[in-house]
Amino acid sequence: MILFLKLLVAHLLGDFVFQPKSWVKDKEKKKIKSTKLYAHISVHAFLLLILLQFNLQYWNVFLLIIVSHFLIDLGKIYLQKKKNKRLLFFLDQALHLFFIGIATYISQPFNITFSAIASEHNLLLTCCLLFVTFTSSIIINTLISKWNPEKNNKSEEQSLANAGKYIGFLERLLVFVFIAINQWAGVGFLLAAKSIFRFGDLTASKDRKLTEYVLVGTLLSFGLAILTGLVYSHYGR
């Protein structure tokens, strides 16, 4: 585990701390001819050497991480377009983590069994997370879709696409986490914070229907998240 953490720290420092935006732009523009690409790989190499304490025992780990990182970054900058930029960012990071895991396994073999992954606890957690995000979103929309006064609200045109959906996801996930770790005060803080942010919109709209619509949606969202958190807390221990 210590080796994996060392490799992960090197990766996080190299990709997110010691890589200026100017380097990223230069790589995207010049691709394989970019000197910043090689500077970026050199930073990773230096960090790895420091964290591995120049131990020659890990030469294969060092080589795998550096070569894979270079090829992954190179593939990303050639495949990247405006439409797939976000997707490639997450795919790029997932591949880096995959090779960090492979490098760790080469030096310190470990066992990952399907039975351990698909344990009762993990399956319950997965069900709760799916319910508190996607399923709850559909349930709430189904229950309150007959009203939806925001369709006729001009401020709707100024909102971000799907912002409400993602806010709901994050809101319920946070409530679920607070309940799971038995920190009910966090739920109160989150509800108060949302009320403050929404107060301006509701006051400006002077629309009682919109106020009631938002209130019903909020209470349903928090209620489903709390219920899911209680189920997990009771059966997940």
UniProtKB/TrEMBL annotation:
Question: What's the superkingdom here?
Answer: Bacteria
Q: Which UniProt keywords apply?
A: Membrane, Transmembrane, Transmembrane helix
What is the protein's given name? Uncharacterized protein DUF3307
Q: Which Pfam families match?
A: DUF3307
What InterPro entries does the database record attribute to this sequence? Answer: Phage_phiKZ_Orf197 (IPR021737)
What stretches pass through the bilayer? 35-52, 58-75, 87-107, 123-144, 173-193, 213-232
